[in-house]
Task: structure prediction
Amino acid sequence: MKYIFGNWKMYLNTQQSIDLAREFAQLVQDGDGVEYAVFPNTLAFYDVAAELKNSPVATGAQNVGWTPQGAYTGSTSAFMFSDAGAKYALVGHSERRHVFGETNEDVRKRLEASIDVGLTPVLCIGETKEDRDADKTEYRLKKQLLKAFENLSLNGNRVIVAYEPVWAIGTGDACVPEEAQRVINLIKQEIKQYVDTDVPVLYGGSVSADNVVSYVSLPDIDGVLVGGASSKAESFMTLINNAISA
Ligand code: PEP
Result:
């Protein structure tokens, strides 16, 4: 297992974000062999990045605007996040796609903007419950991957994919680990068509301290993207301890 990422969504204010970042940084060590990152809200980003400087925990943006600078009220660009110390950017998170109506085309622009400024994008893909019920999981994932990766130039940058079934996010209805392993294996095969470097694939969707080991012990699952359980000190610290001692 190589990655434990915490998406704090819009759960924490600035002081809570700084406090949780400090606790996280005290718990983990460079030699763990794990890449750690948190994704605070935009307002808290700068203080959290400062708190985590010189720690094993990186900081990422929850979403990035694709134009570096300009008349885009309410947006914060990939360029600005990079300037403020971001290493990663979530791109195409389910809540961006389904609450804010972002399309595969928007996702592609955010992906390219992240790569252009040297951020490592964490491309989130996943099927809805309707897709799953209609047996369209593979169709949906292949389409999202095609739109994201076709003719994409990585320019030597890394990219990470997170498989996050929409029906599993924030619901407590986590994907059965063996099914996540099967789908992630399929995603890895599909990505090989487009990218000739190794692309780590994480699982996300109601990961908790209790179930994290069942995901990270499977061969194709390179780590976890954790939402709700990463926003509370007790559940997140227990989750990390369980994952790294597995
Ligand atoms: C997420 O926000 O990416 C996520 C997986 O959320 P949760 O862990 O709360 O399901």
